[in-house]
UniProtKB/TrEMBL annotation:
Homodimer. The active site is at 352 (for fru-6p isomerization activity). It is found in: Cytoplasm. This is Glutamine--fructose-6-phosphate aminotransferase [isomerizing]. The lineage of its organism: Bacteria, Bacillati, Bacillota, Bacilli, Bacillales. It comes from the Bacteria. The keyword Hydrolase does not apply. The gene is glmS. Its main location: cytoplasm. It is an enzyme of class 2 (transferase). The keyword Cytoplasm applies. Residues 40-179, 209-347 form the SIS domain. The chain holds residues 244 to 600 of 600 of the full protein. It comes from Allobacillus halotolerans. Catalyzes the first step in hexosamine metabolism, converting fructose-6P into glucosamine-6P using glutamine as a nitrogen source.
Amino acid sequence: EKGTYPHFMLKEIDEQPFVMRKIIQEYQNESDQIKLDEGVRNAMKACDRVYIIAAGTSYHAGLIGKEMLEKVAEVPTEVHIASEFSYNMPLLSEKPLFIFISQSGETADLRAVLVEIKKLGHPSITMTNVPGSTLSREATHTLHLLAGPEIAVASTKAYTAQLAVLTILAVDTAQAKGIELGFDPLKELAIVGNAMEALCDQKDQFEKIAYQFLYTTRNCFFIGRGMDYHVALEGALKLKEISYIQAEGFAGGELKHGTIALIEEGTPVIALSTQEHVNNLIRSNVQEVEARGANVCMITREGLERPGDDVVIQDVHPLLAPLVTVLPLQLMAYYAALHRNCDVDKPRNLAKSVTVE
Ligand code: F6R
């Protein structure tokens, strides 16, 4: 039930701080340490490489999961689009572990891969919001997202839940390998929850930004570097699927290799900067597009902000910034779709769970 909310999507965006708390609670033991399925922990320890398989928004979560697994847990990780992997399987390592990320647990493209890798005898983990779903039943292990039912076709709270569970998995693996981390992941996720809440309380601001940047536009670009680039891809997908605005996410440094030709007077560019080591670089990309007339909306993190920035999220752990910066993008997509009279919860041509290949 959507209660007093006009749309499920808005309700599900608002539920994200609550989902963070739920995940912390469920993945925490009595001594405030991470509690994780032994089978999952052992599988992570035993593998020499992780292959993340997913589609759409879940694929975008996988791209960030790779960075977490590599940077935090030092596990080499590849991320693959499910529909590509099944018919063009890359060379596999000696001891691969497959992680299927799927909100619904029913996506046929993922199932096709699972069937193939089971024939080869490889272990798998399904990370899903639906315990008992096909992918959960057929994989060796399951990790629950605990986001609660997601009804709107556009995925929001499942994406941030995926990032939170990937964080927990990466940190647990690091701890099992004896890697010193220097941060408490559950505490950091609680801080993320608070930062999300602050954004949910500023909806008017995002409605205004959506109106200013997206009401009549034909297209829109999202740029970032590193993790912010992966969030840019998700921001673009959200916007195109519900508002039908042609949107694309780009790595800031790639603009000059072609895309910048599309920038005209008034083209909206949503820029993300939450990673200190590339803050200067992305800001020079912003100058390049502004010089060609782009209308730039800058989203950054406390400590990295500069005068004139449009949205400054609270200071969270840099690895977890994507969990927070995606909220403004979700809200801007929501309001853009609303202003343009689109069917927010049920966009044309799309189904909530894609059970055909
Ligand atoms: C986008 C969206 C889709 C799904 C994709 C995978 O908002 O919802 O891109 O993310 O169809 O679905 P799951 O995660 O159920 O496998």
